[in-house]
């Protein structure tokens, strides 16, 4: 068992670290760099993306033939975490959600034609994308089996009717991945589709205001009223929708963890800096045992999250679906991010609650971590199922 990164991946990690320090972190201190989505406006992102591409730090998760770095997933873990020292970092090197998950899905499940049409411009950073699965009550949320949006086959096309919501980045996205019902079979009732924004028969019903900062394009409710999708834009085959979601959501949950670990470490960095200089009652805050215990506890939780994330990444690289490992990482890291932001705000006093630091941005973003891509309770349910099936082998090595 060897936890060292290869010299090549370690060098890459350090290059990402230096790039973020020099070109991305300084952008956070200018309020003009936060749009009404509380994210970096596209015209301000473009120059830093150009620098990232020139530095060879671009789309670590995507195939080389389309312009990415095609790293193994253990190297994603190191690179994403470094990139997410800044809240703009993952966008700067084109590994932010939801695009990174969509690129990864297309790379694994797309036909050559689908990859050329949908994947290439995404990797090149020319378009944004969205993944549309969740529906308002009584449709599918935690339980995809409740999906109501239907795609009915007519000749060589599918006609889609229904409603989705909380679709990240939908406003302004060019490429959409849609999961819809094509039959009532329990395991093979869903199908994945690709469509382009200019195809008629769908509209954004509203942008849903949320408590946290947003990806560009916000979180939208979408209405489908006769969207026509040609059969060649089915992902895999009709009835493979659950497989499509598994291919997308497993790694996407883990890349959330990789970014969240970067943000959690940043919270600790801001906390350390303040308690190291701030004095109260005759000593530095850093010298107070209570402060040390708080920060030590977060450091320990972050490391647990890193180990779970790296283990799941390694399993994915071995060809496993790593379902339980990803669930464990997601539960742990979502909680840790929240705890890291909360503790950092607390030890920073009023400053922590202000917008003078990035802590409040991260704190609001952190609250979504326990909900998105499967609520923590659902991941715990999955673990409990595995434990019932596998008994004591649940904890096997390898
Ligand atoms: C910021 C944000 C971005 C999102 N982006 C996207 C996106 O791009 N595309 C997309 O398709 N969806 C997106 N979603 C939706 C997200 O994936 C769903 O919110 C999530 O899957 C939970 O579904 P739900 O909201 O319908 O919760 P529900 O299914 O209504 O569940 C509500 C709560 O019930 C509890 N619960 C559910 N099942 C169980 C159980 N078995 N045992 C115990 N408790 C349980 C959990 O606490 C859960 O939070 C986004 C959501 C947010 C908040």
Structure description:
A four-stranded mixed beta sheet has the order 1-4-5-8. It has helices at 7-24, 42-54, 73-83, 89-92, 99-109, 112-123, 241-277, 289-317, 323-347, 350-353, 359-369, 376-390, and strands at residues 129-132, 150-154, 157-168, 175-181, 190-196, 202-207, 219-230, 234-235, 279-280, 283-284. By secondary structure, the chain is an alpha+beta fold. 48% of the residues lie in helices and 15% in strands. The protein has three domains: 7-123, Orthogonal Bundle (Butyryl-Coa Dehydrogenase, subunit A, domain 1), CATH 1.10.540.10; 129-239, Butyryl-CoA Dehydrogenase, subunit A, domain 2, CATH 2.40.110.10; 242-395, Butyryl-CoA Dehydrogenase, subunit A, domain 3 (Up-down Bundle). The structure holds flavin-adenine dinucleotide.
Keyphrases for this structure?
about 400 residues; alpha+beta; Butyryl-Coa Dehydrogenase, subunit A, domain 1; Butyryl-CoA Dehydrogenase, subunit A, domain 2; 3 domains; 4-stranded mixed sheet; 4-stranded antiparallel sheet; 12 helices; 10 strands; about 50% helix; binds flavin-adenine dinucleotide
């Amino acid at each position: 068992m060897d936890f060292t990164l290869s010299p090549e991946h370690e060098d890459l990690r350090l290059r990402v670290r230096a790039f973020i320090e020099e070109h991305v972190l300084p952008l956070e201190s200018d309020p003009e760099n936060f749009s009404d989505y509380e994210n970096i406006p596209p015209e301000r992102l473009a120059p830093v993306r150009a620098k990232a591409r020139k530095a060879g730090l671009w789309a670590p998760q995507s195939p080389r033939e389309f312009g990415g770095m095609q790293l193994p997933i253990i190297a994603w873990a190191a690179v994403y975490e470094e990139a997410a020292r800044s809240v703009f970092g993952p966008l700067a090197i084109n590994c932010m959600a939801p695009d990174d998950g969509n690129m990864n899905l297309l790379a694994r499940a797309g036909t050559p034609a689908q990859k050329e049409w949908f994947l290439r411009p995404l990797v090149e950073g020319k378009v944004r994308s969205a993944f549309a699965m969740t529906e308002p009550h009584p449709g599918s949320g935690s339980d995809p089996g409740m999906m109501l949006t239907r795609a009915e086959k007519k000749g060589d096309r599918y006609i889609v009717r229904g409603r989705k919501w909380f679709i990240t980045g939908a406003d302004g996205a060019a490429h959409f991945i849609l999961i819809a019902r094509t039959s009532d079979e329990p395991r093979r009732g869903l199908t994945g589709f690709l469509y382009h924004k200019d195809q008629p028969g769908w509209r954004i019903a509203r942008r849903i205001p949320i408590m946290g900062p947003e990806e560009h394009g916000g979180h939208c409710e979408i209405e489908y009223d006769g969207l026509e999708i040609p059969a060649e834009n089915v992902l895999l085959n009709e009835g493979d929708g659950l497989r499509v979601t598994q291919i997308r959501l497993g790694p996407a949950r883990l890349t959330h963890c990789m970014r969240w670990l970067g943000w959690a470490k940043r919270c600790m960095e801001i906390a350390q800096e303040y308690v190291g200089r701030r004095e109260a009652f005759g000593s530095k805050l850093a010298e107070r045992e209570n402060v040390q215990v708080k920060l030590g506890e977060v450091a320990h939780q972050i490391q647990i999250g890193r180990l779970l994330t790296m283990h799941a990444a390694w399993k994915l690289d071995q060809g496993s679906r790593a379902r339980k490992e990803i669930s464990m990482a997601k539960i742990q890291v979502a909680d840790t991010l929240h705890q890291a932001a909360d503790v950092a705000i607390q030890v920073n006093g009023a400053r922590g609650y202000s917008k003078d630091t990035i802590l409040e941005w991260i704190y609001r973003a952190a609250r979504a971590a326990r909900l998105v891509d499967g609520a923590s309770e659902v991941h715990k349910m999955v673990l409990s199922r595995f434990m019932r099936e596998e008994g004591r082998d649940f904890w096997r090595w390898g």
